[in-house]
């Protein structure tokens, strides 16, 4: 089993009430379980954000490299809007 460390945290009243409500409602056996699950969710969300940021940075780097190499196309707002609509529709159907 993983090593356990005891922490004392301070929460705004609304958050504390939500934690207590989750325990009182029977969803969790203890406040610690609520906080552990919230932290697990945060870790996953944070990792996804880092991946998305790395992907965005890679896209920017590719764009800068294309610009430096002279690989340019004329700006076409309609083409960009259509591409965005297609990507949006695809993500909604997934």
UniProtKB/TrEMBL annotation:
One Pfam family named in its UniProt record: RHH_1
At the top level of its lineage, which domain of life is listed?
Bacteria
Which SUPFAM superfamilies does the record cross-reference, listed alphabetically? Ribbon-helix-helix
Domain Ribbon-helix-helix protein CopG, which positions?
A: 5-44
Return the protein name.
Ribbon-helix-helix protein, CopG family
Question: Which organism does this sequence originate in?
Answer: Azospirillum endophyticum
List the taxonomic lineage: Bacteria, Pseudomonadati, Pseudomonadota, Alphaproteobacteria, Rhodospirillales
């Amino acid at each position: 089993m993983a090593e356990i460390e005891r922490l004392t945290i301070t929460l705004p009243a609304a958050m504390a009430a939500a934690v207590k409500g989750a325990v009182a409602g029977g969803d969790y056996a203890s406040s610690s379980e609520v906080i552990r699950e919230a932290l697990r969710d945060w870790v996953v969300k944070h990792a996804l954000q880092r991946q998305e940021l790395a992907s965005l940075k890679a896209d920017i780097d590719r764009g800068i490299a294309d610009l430096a190499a002279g690989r340019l196309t004329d700006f076409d707002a309609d083409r960009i809007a259509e591409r965005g609509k297609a990507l949006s529709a695809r993500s909604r159907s997934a």
